[in-house]
Structures are given as structure tokens and as C-alpha cells.
Fold:
Amino acid sequence: MISFDRVTKRYEAGHDALREVSFDIEKDELVFLTGHSGAGKSTLLRLIMLMDRPTRGQVTIDGRNLSSVGKRAIPAHRRGIGVVFQNHRLLFDRTVFDNVALPLIIAGYDHREIGRRVRAALDKVGLLRHEHAMPLSLSGGEQQRVGIARAVVGRPNILLADEPTGNLDPELSAEIMRLFEAFNQVGVTVLIASHDLVLISRLHHRILTLKDGRLISGASGPGDAL
Ligand SMILES: Nc1ncnc2c1ncn2[C@@H]1O[C@H](COP(=O)(O)OP(=O)(O)O)[C@@H](O)[C@H]1O
Ligand SMILES: [Mg+2]
Structure:
């Protein structure tokens, strides 16, 4: 589902953020991406979302080589991918419902379909009764769950998360990870960047480890995950 073939990303300053990175993630997998700060985790996710392009090598998503996806096809590519950020980037002057509805409004869904899908997404993250609340009236963990609802409301095949538990205590972090596992169990491919090794080694999923832009472990498939 997500395939990197000797991907190198060099920023203009001449620094290689990723060097010859190769791995495959299957459709049914949930995989963690870890490594020190500056190791290249966010860069790797940005290449999948086409927020950036590799300097060398190929990224293939759902059978499609991203080098063949032109500028105009980027919005359609992104609609297949849900993204969760650490600081969840919610609009604080809009209700929970409106925040989650945003991607569907942009994609041009009709009013009734938006209502149906937003409530289904809020229900999945346990926030249905907060649909009329403003984000700032919610706890940090609840705000992050709004971010997750917004990421899945378009029913993406792939869910990416960049340090989704960065601001949360261990208990809330574990709860957020359980949510990602639940989406994975219904067929969503999940890739989560996190430097919280204590948390992610407790969950039994494959871990890709980056060090200075190189993939130093986890590259092989689920067969040898342990
Ligand atoms: N837009 C950019 N321009 C130049 N260098 C960048 C840019 N984004 C990231 N980098 C550099 O690339 C390396 C990897 O960064 P990043 O992918 O953000 O790592 P991580 O998410 O693992 O902390 C770092 O050395 C960072 O300074
Ligand atoms: Mg990062």
C-alpha cells in the first residue's frame, strides 16, 4: 500500500533528510515510524502526502507511482489519505462538528451526507455528544480525537499521524493508539510517526526506525515483525 524504493530527500541547504530509504507497508498493517528528532520522520510523511517530492527514488501509494501524479492531481491524491498532526490544527472559532465537516465541505459533499458522515466519525472517536462544543472547551485528548475524526471523515484508505500523542499523558496516549488500532482493524493502513519508544514498543506492531535519514530497522514485511 505504501512503498518506498531507495528514496533520498535532499533539502536545498544540501542536507539529506532521507537517504536511500526502502520499505513496503501492506494494506492491513499498522506501522510505527520512530527515530530521534531530526531523523526524517516528518519528511517521510510529507513525501507520502505529496507536500514534497523526493530528490531520488520512488514512492508508490496504492499501486500508483507518485512521480506520475501531477500538481493538479494532488488534491485527489490527498483525499485518499487522512492526516493527524500533533497540534491537531483545529479552528478554534468553529464547533467540533464544523471542524470535522471541513474536508467534506471542501470536497463538495451535500449537506445531508456531510451530517451523516460527520456524526459517524464523531461516534467512532467517542465525541458525538460534543458535536456543538467549541474545541477550547474540550480537554487535550478530546481535541486530538476531533483531529482524528476530521482525518477519517473522508473514509481514507491510509491514515498518517505525525507525533499524535506528543502533548498527551501516557494514559491518553494509549487511548489514542487504541483508536488508530480500531481504524486499522476495519481496513485502514496506518503509519504513525512517534518518538515515544516506551509507548510504541508496548504495542505489538512493526517499527520502522530512522537514524540521520537512514532506515536502520523494520524495513522487512510483517512476517518478521517480531
Ligand atoms: N523544509 C526544510 N528545509 C530544510 N531542511 C529541512 C526542512 N524540513 C526538515 N529539514 C531537515 O531535515 C531533517 C529531518 O527533519 P524532519 O523530517 O522534520 O525530522 P523528524 O520529523 O524526525 O524530527 C532535519 O535535519 C531538518 O532540520
Ligand atoms: Mg517531525
About this structure: The beta strands are 2-10, 16-25, 30-34, 56-61, 64-65, 81-85, 158-162, 189-193, 206-211, 214-217. The pocket of adenosine-5'-diphosphate (ligand 1) is lined by residues 11, 13, 15, 17, 35, 37-43 (CB under 6 Å). Residues 92-154 form one domain.
